[in-house]
């Protein structure tokens, strides 16, 4: 199983939100799945219908990053992700 990682420096991303790197990693993983490439479905449809095992960890990382934005404790600890 390969590890997906956004290769560019996170400061170069067009999207400057707190979870931009996690989002980019999840997008790249989704675009390389059979659901998108073979079945010709959109990444959104593949995400809703069932996720490939190799992308599940990235989905959880992105979810935790987004959830940390709502957590008041992050004022002191900082945001998860990059």
Automatic annotation (TrEMBL):
Q: Which BP terms does GO give this entry?
A: mitochondrial respiratory chain complex IV assembly
Superkingdom of this entry's organism? Eukaryota
Keywords, A to Z, come to: Disulfide bond
Per the record, its GO cellular-component terms are:
mitochondrion
Keyword match Endoplasmic reticulum: no
Family assignment?
Answer: Belongs to the PET191 family.
Summarizing the function annotation, the protein's role is: Involved in an early step of the mitochondrial complex IV assembly process.
Instruction: Write down what this protein is called.
Output: Cytochrome c oxidase assembly factor 5
Species name: Diaphorina citri
């Amino acid at each position: 199983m390969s590890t997906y990682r956004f290769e560019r420096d996170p400061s170069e991303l067009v999207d400057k939100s707190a979870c931009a790197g996690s989002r980019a990693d999840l997008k790249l993983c989704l675009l390389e799945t059979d659901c998108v490439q073979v079945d010709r479905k959109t990444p959104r449809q593949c995400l809703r219908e069932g996720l490939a095992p190799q992308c599940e960890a990235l989905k959880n990382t992105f979810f935790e990053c987004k959830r940390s934005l709502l957590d008041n404790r992050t004022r002191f600890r900082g945001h998860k992700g990059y």
